[in-house]
UniProtKB/TrEMBL annotation:
Protein name (Swiss-Prot/TrEMBL): Peptidoglycan-recognition protein
Residue span(s) of domain N-acetylmuramoyl-L-alanine amidase: 33-170
UniProt record similarity statement: Belongs to the N-acetylmuramoyl-L-alanine amidase 2 family.
Domain Peptidoglycan recognition protein family: 22-164
Amino acid sequence: MIRVLSVFVIMILPKDFVLADCGVVTREQWDGLSPTRVEYLPRPVGLVIIMHTVSSPCNTDQTCAAQVRNLQTYFLDQLNYWDLGPSFLIGGNGKVYEGPGWLHVGAHTYGYNRKSIGISFIGNFNNDKPTPEALAAAKALIKCGMTKGHLKRDYKVVGARQLIATESPGRKLYQEIRNWPDWTDNLDGIKNN
C-alpha cells in the first residue's frame, strides 16, 4: 500500500493585501481612523448607489487623502456615525478610497444601507463633470466587486436621488451613470415603500 503524504501550506497574507481588494486605497494608506463599531453587510448585494460628497474636489493623491480624512472627521465628530458613510469614495485622481468597504454596513442612503454598496465621488457634480479617471475607477471597482462575489451578477446601479430626497449624485454625475449598462430606472423591488 502506498501512503500519500499531503502537505498543506497555509499562507498568511499581509493585512493590506487582503484589504486592498480591487485596488482600493486602504484606510491605513490614507491614514484613517478605525470605526468605532462595525456591522457586517450580508453579501452579495444587488444594489450600488452612486452619490457625491458635495465638498471640494480633489485631483492629487495628497489632496484626496486629506479630503477623505476630513470627511471621516465630519461623519465621526459632527454626525456621530461609526465611520465614514459611503462604502467607498472616489477622487478625481482616479483612486478609490476605503470607507466601510465591501464587508461592513455603511451609512450613506437612509433605508438602504443594509442592502447596498454606496460609492461617493469626492466633489460637487451639480455643475462640474467627474474626471474620466474617476468614472473609470468607479466602473472598475464595480466590475471587481461583482467578480469577487461582493455584488450579485445581476446588480443594479442607481443614483441616490432615485431613492431618497436629495440632489445627489449631482446633475452631471447622474447624467453619466444613466448611460452605464447596469444603471436602472426600474425601481420595482428596489425602492422601499
